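Protein 1 of 2
SEQ + STRUCT:
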Amino acid sequence: MEPDLKGKFVLVTPAKNEEQNLPEVSKSVIGQKIKADLWVIVDDGSTDGTPRILEDLQANYSWIRSIRLPPRPRDITFHYSYVCKKGFDYALEYCRENNIEFDYIGLLDADTVLEGNYFGKLLTEFEKDNSLGIVSGGIYYDIDGKLSREMTTKHLPRGTGRIWRKKCFLETGGYQVEPSPDSISNIKALKRGWRLMQCADVVQIQKRKTSAANGLWHGYIKNGWMAYYLGKNPFTALINVLYYSLKSPHYTGAAYLWGYFGSAIRREKRIQDSEIKAYYRNQRLAEVFSTTSEIFSRNSKDAREREQ
């Protein structure tokens, strides 16, 4: 039997030109067994029907609020985290002004559809363990009517569909305006003694591939650049290149390679956060090997299952 869930939560969603996905995503959030006390959707200067959809949502649900930012090019590096932070800042201020108490705060991308009790299942994990700081479900893709899970390090929460314990969120400095803010948040939480979890059997269906908003080639160039920016060592980058090259579409490995080593050749700027730099500098090769072998073995298992 699930424990009595007492925790309240608020949710933030960045959205840019999401008229195709937002109706289904909003339906999945509104239909949750445990609903958010506040859902803030940040319209990042959309030029399609997204503003109209948000107006309708606000008119029909008092717990949904939206804010609009000036039009800017879509960008998964600094600008994405800036948009998210605008949403978190608004949510925290709105809760203060309206005396809304909450225990958890979450992030959901506007292309991610949730199973019916997504938040209930994750909040249950928080109730079981006071040391749990961040949790998410697993990311799945609907491929010809069959769900396929995206393989990642099994204990790390995903960027979308993640929930922080409020205390963990505030202790780690909230949402950083940096590339790969989810990785930064994970590291800062671990450094402060928080436990992380990905509940792979709790389903969130992503409507497009991770990093694919502007096409996979450009997305993986950005991913390679972000790895360089955060200070990941070249050996780790090469393992990632191999991993991406062996999975479809194979050209993502070349894109990641160019993003990382092109940045290294140009000696581009890297993150200034000493805590993050120290983490990646001291990252043990054994940990890298363990993570890589885990991903490869699960990919092989999934490939065998698809052939059956």
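Protein 2 of 2
SEQ + STRUCT:
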Amino acid sequence: MPEPTTPFDLTGRIAVVTGARRGIGRGMAVALAAAGADIIGVSARMEATGSDVQRAVEALGRAFTPYRADFADRAAVAALAARIRARHGTVDILVNNGGDIRRAPAVRYSDADWDYVLEVDLTAQFILARELGGAMVERGSGKIVFTASMLSFQGGVNIAAYTAAKSGIAGLTRALANEWAGTGVNVNAIAPGYIATDNTAALRADPVRFSAISDRIPAGRWGTPEDLGGAVVFLASDAAAYVHGVVLPVDGGWLGR
């Protein structure tokens, strides 16, 4: 691996980004590629070739390798990790971003939706961290970045399973950091604020909720996937060598309000 020219230089490193096909994951994948990393992009509907994220990464001169996996299928997640390790060896960076959301009042929230969201948003994240992060621990270096949420700090409305999962991600981040910091593996998380993606389309389509949320954001606007780029590059880089167990809000000031 070439020596980095700056602490933020990711040249020669391999980054796995889950949920990379669109939204926040796409923004993170492109930011890491711009910093020099080659990207392994994972999504449940990732195209075998020619995806938008692949074109964006390759336009930056970096390699892109696509994988498709259903995070609701525990065996498929384990098989994904095995395929990545067999083909790419021990990766340098794991961005555990993939996830989903299902909305309903708690009194009508079904067992099926609860199980699905917890499986996709929490259990799958742990399996990938264990399988790919375990190899980092053996090697003595690596970076893991989870995507947490404002709901890692707050309760939300009509998204009980998502809140539970994202609260779990914050705890998992700290637990793995406690175990792995001494091995040279950094485990941290980013907590996006309100970002304009498909997952927030329902909120943005509701004029009352959209106005209430927008009025509370000190920055005066909703975030974009690109707003997460600097944070993920930092946490994936040597600049964050002494940063462990942090859940970093990128929220336009929401939590400080």
